[in-house]
Amino acid sequence: MSIFLAFFISAVILTREAEEFIHDELQHRFNYIENKIRRQLRAGNYPEKLPSSTILTEISTKAEPETKPIFSDTLVYNSELEEMQLYRQKTIIFEEQGKTYQLIITKSLQDFYRLKNDIFGALIPAFFILATAIVLFNSLLSGSLFKPFNKILSQMRTYKVGSGIALNSVNTNTTEFIKMQQLYHEMVERIEKDYRNLKEYTENMAHEIQTPLTVIRNKTENLIADEALMQQHASTVKIIYDEANHLSKLGNTLNLITKIENQEFTNRERIATKAVIEKHLESISEVVRLKSLQIKTEFSEQHTLFIDPFLLDIVLKNILRNAIHYGSSHGPIRIKTTDDRLSVSNYGPPLEEAPEKIFERFYKKNGTRASQGLGLSLVQKICQLNNLKILYKYQSDQHVFTIKSEDQN
User: Fold this and answer.
1) Coil, helix or strand for 313?
2) Letter string b/e over residues 341-375, b meaning 16 or more CB atoms within 10 A of that residue's CB
3) Among 27-31, 33-37, 162-166, which stretch is predicted with the lowest mean pLDDT?
C-alpha cells in the first residue's frame, strides 16, 4: 500500500512539474516574440513579417500603465489536420514611440500535451511493473529468505518459562540470523537456570517453613490446653497461634501463585458450576451458622466455566471466604449463576478506598494494620490466566463480585 501511495504522490508531482514546464516554455516563447517586435517598433521599424499566429494592430486607445497581459486557452481548427487543436493565446496592449499597439500571440499546446501524454504513457506502466516487482520481491523476502527468521520468532512466541529448553536449531546461512539464534538460546538458558534456582528456593522455603510452623502450632495448642496459663496469657497465646496459621497459609498461597503464573495448571475442562458450588457451601455451612449469616442461592443448570478444576476450587473458596468474613447480618449472602456469569454478594459498609485496590496483594485500609491478604489477588490472577474477568461493584449496600468470560460485555 505504501508503495502505491508513493507512486501516486510521484505521479502528482510529475504532473505539476510537466504543467509548470509547459507554462514556462510558452512564457519564454511569448516573451521572445514580444521583445523582438517591441525592439523593432522602438527602432521605428514596423515589422513587415510577423511570426505565424501573431497579430499586431495599432489602436487608438491609450494603454494604461497597469495593463497586464491576458492569457487564454482556445480551440482552433487546423485545416491541414482537419481537427480542433488546443492553443494558448497572449494578448498585450503597449505603447511604443507614442503609438498604442495590441499584440496577439497564439501558440499551439498540442505538441506539449502530446509529449506529456507520451511520457506518462511510458511512466505509468513502468510504475506498475516496478511496484509489482517490489511486492513480489518483498513476498519472496518475507517468505523464503525470512523463513528462518520467522521460525525463530515462532519459538520466541511459544516459549514458556519452566517448560524446558526444547529449542530446535534453525538452518540458515544468514550471519545475522545465526547470531540472533545463538543469543536467543543463551538468553533462554539463563532464564531457565534462574527460574530453576528461584523455583527450587521457593519450594524449599515453602516446604521447610512448614516444619517449624507445625511445631509452633503444636506447642501453642499445648499452651491453650493449660487453663492456668491461658488465664494470664490468653491474648498472647492466641496471637502466636493465629500468626503461625497465617504464615503457613501465606507460604502455601505464594507458592501457589508462582505455579499459577508459570501456567503449571493446564488441565482445563468445561465444568458445570452448580454441583461444585453446592459442595463448597456444604463445607462452610457450620461457619455460616456460627456467624449467624444466611446464604441464598439461585443457580442456572447451564452455567459453566472452562478452567482447571483445582483452580476453580481455589476461586470459589476464596470468594466465599471473603463474603463470609466481611458479611453482615443486615442481609443474606447471595450466590447466583446465570447462563454466562457467576456473582457473589454480601451486605456491608462501602469501601474507604478505590474499588480496584481490593485486588492488590496485601492491600491495607488507611489506618489499619490488617491487610486483605492474597485471596482476591489470587482469584484475579486465576481469572486473568483463564480468559475470565472478575468485576467488583457496590450497590444497594452490597459488595458484589461477578465472574464472566473476557469476551462478554
Assistant:
1) helix
2) bbbbbbbbeeeeeeeeebbebebeeeeeeeebbbb
3) 162-166
pLDDT given at position 4: 66
C-alpha to C-alpha distance for 200 and 259, rounded to whole angstroms: 12
Whether the predicted pLDDT of 364 surpasses 60: no
Residue type, 259: K
Q: Are 195 and 162 in contact (CB under 8 A)?
A: yes
- Please report how many Cα atoms fall inside a 13 Å half-sphere around the Cα of residue 228, on the Cβ side: 0
What are the pLDDT digits (tens) for 46-64? Answer: 887 888 788 888 887 776 7
Average pLDDT over residues 138-155: 73
The model's confidence at residue 164, banded by pLDDT at 50, 70 and 90, is low
Alpha carbons within 13 A on the beta-carbon side of 126: 8
Could you please report the per-residue DSSP string of 204-220?
HHHHHTHHHHHHHHHHH
**Range list of β-strands (E), 44-124:** 54-59, 70-78, 83-96, 99-108
Q: Kindly calculate the radius of gyration of the chain based on its CA atoms and give it in whole angstroms.
A: 45
Q: Three cell numbers at 45?
A: 521599424
The CA distance from 270 to 119, in Å, is 68
Strands 333-337 and 341-347, sheet pairing: antiparallel
Closest to 242 (Cα-Cα) out of 211, 222, 221: 221
Question: pTM for this structure?
Answer: 0.50
Give the CB-side neighbour count of residue 97, counting CA atoms within 13 A.
11
Three cell numbers at 170? 534453525
Look up residue 165 and give its DSSP letter.
-
